[in-house]
Amino acid sequence: MKYLLFINYITGLKHNAVYKNIEYLQESITQLIEEEDLNIKTEKKLTIEELVSYFKTEDDLYVQFSNGTWYHIQELTGKNYIR
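-> structure tokens emitted (83 positions)
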């Protein structure tokens, strides 16, 4: 399964990327927390298992960090992904 990660930084900068698996996606979120100089223990960061479980019932996920930066994850399926 592929996942789209859309990031909106507090500075107004926007970034998006497609990840071929959930492990790479989760690693990118960890890097985002570190780059934003946020406390990894207090920010909402789902484990790989939690992400897998979440996407069994939901199509997308929105999370906002304490500094205002937010990210949106969307599972890319046949109905919402153009090759």
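The beta strands are 2-8, 14-19, 60-64, 70-76.
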